[in-house]
Amino acid sequence: MSEIIPCPKCGSEYTYPMGALMVCPECAHEWNPEEVIEEEIALVVKDSNGNVLQDGDAVVVIKNLPVKGAPSPIKAGTKVKNIRLVEGDHNIDCKIDGFGNMALKSEFVKKA
């Protein structure tokens, strides 16, 4: 029996193969599992110094970052633990004490 690959769109585990493609019955998404593996490998995020970041790393904010709706910015030198890398403009998801869940740009952090 082949390995079950969860849907990259909705995360469903009820996927099934159809020829060379995988199909999700819950969201009707079809994809090539070989391309998904290549896309996951292609995500490389670097900090302000050019160091490659990985999920679970700790980083330090290098400049004050204003936050909409917050009375004070995230101060330079704030250490953020256990980051998660995502695709997009703000490519780091994390939780910052006093601010909650945040999305940061990798160009404003350095690896701790």
Write up this protein.
This protein has 112 residues and is mostly beta strands. Helix content is 9%, strand content 29%. The protein contains one helix and eleven strands; from the N terminus they run βββαββββββββ. The chain has a three-stranded antiparallel sheet. It has a three-stranded antiparallel sheet with strand order 7-6-11, with no helix packed on it. Strands 8-9-10 form a three-stranded antiparallel sheet, with no helix packed on it. The longest helix is centred in the middle third of the chain and has 10 residues, at 33-42. It is elongated. The model has no long low-confidence stretch (mean pLDDT 88).
Shape: elongated
Alpha carbon gap, first and last residue:
43 Å
**Quick one: how many beta strands?**
11
Order of helices and strands: EEEHEEEEEEEE
Describe the strand arrangement of the main beta sheet, using strand numbers: 1-2-3
- The Cα radius of gyration reads 18 Å
Question: What is the count of helical runs?
Answer: 1
Report the sheet with the most strands, covering strand number, pairing sense and barrel closure: 3 strands, antiparallel
Q: What value does the average pLDDT take? A: 88
**Which residues sit in consecutive blocks of at least 5 with pLDDT less than 50?**
none
Per DSSP, what share of the residues sits in E-state strands of 2 or more residues?
Answer: 25-35%
The level of helicity is under 10%
- How does the helix and strand content classify structurally? mainly beta
